[in-house]
Amino acid sequence: MPQPRKSQVSLDDTPYYHCVSRCVRRAYLCGEDKQTGNSYDHRRQWVEDYLLKLAEVFAIDVCAYAVMSNHTHIVLHVNQQQAEVWSIQEVLERWHRLHKGTLLTQMYLNLERRRQLDASQLQCIHDTAEVYRQRLYDLSWFMRQLNEHIAREANKEDQCTGRFWEGRFKSQALLDEAALMACMAYVDLNPVRANMEQTPESSQHTSVKLRAKAVQQHKAQPKALFPFVGNPRNNMPQGLPFQLHHYLELVDSTGRMVREDKRGHLKLEASPIMQRLGIAAEQWLSLSCEFEQHFSGAVGKERRLRKYHQHLGHKRTTGLARSRCLLNSA
Length: 330
Hints:
This protein is of the alpha+beta class. The chain has helices at about 40-55, 80-85, 90-95, 105-110, 110-115, 120-135, 140-160, 175-190, 190-195, 205-215, 245-260, 270-275, 280-290, 290-295, 300-310, 320-325, and strands at about 15-20, 60-65, 70-80, 170-175.
């Protein structure tokens, strides 16, 4: 029986989560159906565009994503602290980019009409804004907005009704740097493993393509993605705790080992990321290529897993031994 979302998300333990959504019956509703010859590949662009749009509205950052033919992988960073400092004005403006809000919130955003509001109406607006604020850093609301929008657009195009996605999206808590980097590499390499693309940087509808393109064009990191900000240090800005070029090199090397037609001895141990994480090359390949097969729930070192389960009140710590085995050197 699936666990309720509140028993899987603990922002006290980690702001990073891996979310997976699959089409009903795993049908090719976002790609090319080889049985019928129909192509729905343009819907992958719908998913990518709306995902990055939502990241501009929510206090949730996109670390990595891959839009496949019948499922999506997204690694998200929940930025609760950012949402908590937004003014009522900013909260309402963000919410109204997606929804109409209420008559009172619409009046509040109109400076002329705002003067007509009395104290009880202003209090009602304040209470409503607090509800919106919590939703704007809620993982379930983010995924709900994304999946409902795509489902409506696809059903409109197909002139039909019914489910587009399976019941609920799957989420995994990523409790430490090893889990985060392994999951991001796993997501970015999805098209290469599926033989849809030759290289990570050519993989359509992935975060690694966006990051690589910016580097090739000597541009700053994409604003739509959570940035790499370098190794941990004092007064560190918000972002992923690694160097971008180190991550791209590691994903490229891993991708060439994944492809059977491009085998070769690559010294992954020499990567600065690998040195920091303390993961052996064989262990890294297993994690970055078979992440979902190894982990069905939260991912991290044993100490972090125990703390996470205690916070959520789980009576059992299923998978601890297996997680320790795969991340024992992290």
